[in-house]
Structures are given as C-alpha cells and as structure tokens.
Amino acid sequence: MRDSGFYKFGRMVGGKFKTAKWVWASAAGSEEEAIRAEYAVGRNLAELVRNEVPGETDGNDQLFLDGISDRLVSVVRNKLHRFEVATLAKGQPSAFALPGGFIFVDRSLVRLCHHDHDEIAFVVAHEMAHVIRRHAINRLLSQAALSVVSLATAGRGWLVPWLKKTGLQGLERAYSRNHEFEADALGVLMTKAAGFDPSGSTRLLNRLGVLNRESDQSMLGVYLSTHPSIEDRIVRLRHHG
C-alpha cells in the first residue's frame, strides 16, 4: 500500500531526490506519517540484513541489549519513534542503525566490552541518535539515489540488489563527521537521562582505540574508517559529559 507521506513528497519533488534532505512537516505530510513510512522501509531492510548474516545469535546477549534499550527508549521525547535493537553474529565489533529505528549490534562488540552496561548503552544511544536526527534515512537516500516514491513503493524489489552491491559495510559507514559528533552528543545525553554512567562513552572509545592500534589487520577498519578520530570524539564527549 502506498504511504501518503512519501507519495505526496514524491509528487512535489519528482525525479531523483538529489539533496537527501527530509522535509517532514511541509512536504511529507504529518511527522507521524513520515516516521511510519520510514519505519516500513527500515523493516524491509532489517529483514534482508538478518538473511544476509549467517549463524545464530546468543539469546543472553539479546536479553542484555533489551534491558539497555528499554531504558534508553523510555527517555526518548518523541514517542512516535520506535526502536528494535538486535544482535548480529558477523564477527567484527560494529553497530549500525537503519531507518525507522532498527539497530544492530554485533555480539563481538558486546563481548569486547565485557557486557559493560554503560559502554553498550552509549553504542545503542549513539545509533538511536542517528535515527532521531534522521541521519539514517538521509544516508540511505543518498546511497540509493532513488526517488522517494520508489523508496516507498518498490519495497524489497530494489533493496535486495542495493544491499548485495553495497554489503553490510555500506550500512556501517558513510555518515559525515558532523553527523557522528551530533550522534555522540545526543547519545551521551540519552545515557545520562536513562541512568547510565556517561563515562562509558569514553571508556568504549578508548577500548576501541587500543584494539585498533594493536590489531595487525584492524578488526575495526570499516567501523572507524569514516568516523572522526577517537581523540576528537573523546574531547567533545568530555565537554558534553
């Protein structure tokens, strides 16, 4: 079924969505309609991601993430947003967010942090921030280079070849430095509001920095390659902390 928000927006802008801006209230109908349409796209993409990653995830790791994400979701001001946080077993410490609030955290990252609630809370909150600030949907539109109408109506038809071409690496990278800083800032505020220790953010980044330096062939190359430097992120996080 065609989503009215995407449809009206597509009728107005036509052709390619070149600027990758999300004009919610003025062009896509109500904010509720726009978020609902974004959720539908993310749900389809999340299903494809699950099919792409072989192996089974650990139920205990999922319960661990559920407890953390429930606390973070409770402090999100805009209750129109929904979030689903799931584990992956890809084998490289990473995390990424899809439009609509679908977040994946590789269980190797959970175990790298020794199940530290505060560190993983920052990981999840950072990815939630990418959704709240609409970085996730803008990135998808920029990479896919499709019209908004196609995004809403074609469903999995175009998502399958796009994901196969870009791979999961395309979902783990390609945010701008400013977007990463913005997600860090909002993420640490959310962890504080949810009762987590905000210093978990800098502990996590220091941990990733050590791993990145010590690995002969970096396990974090893709995950960190388009992020700002760890040192810059820590300086800014201490300011927000």
- State the distance separating the first and last CA atoms: 45 Å
Give the strand tally.
3
Mean pLDDT: 77
H and E order: HHHHEEEHHHHHHHHHH
Rg calc: 17 Å
Counting structural domains, the number is 1
Ranges where pLDDT stays below 50 over 5 or more residues in a row are 1-28
Strand percentage: 5-15%
SSE order and pairing:
Blueprint (H helix, E strand, L loop, with lengths): L3 H10 L10 H4 L3 H22 L6 H15 L10 E5 L6 E4 L3 E5 H6 L4 H16 L2 H10 L3 H6 L2 H11 L2 H4 L4 H17 L6 H15 L6 H5 L4 H11 L1
Parallel strand pairs: 1-3
Antiparallel strand pairs: 2-3
Helix pairs in contact: 3-9, 4-6, 6-11, 6-12, 11-14, 12-14
Key words describing this protein structure:
three-stranded mixed beta sheet; disordered N terminus; 3 strands; 14 helices; 6% strand
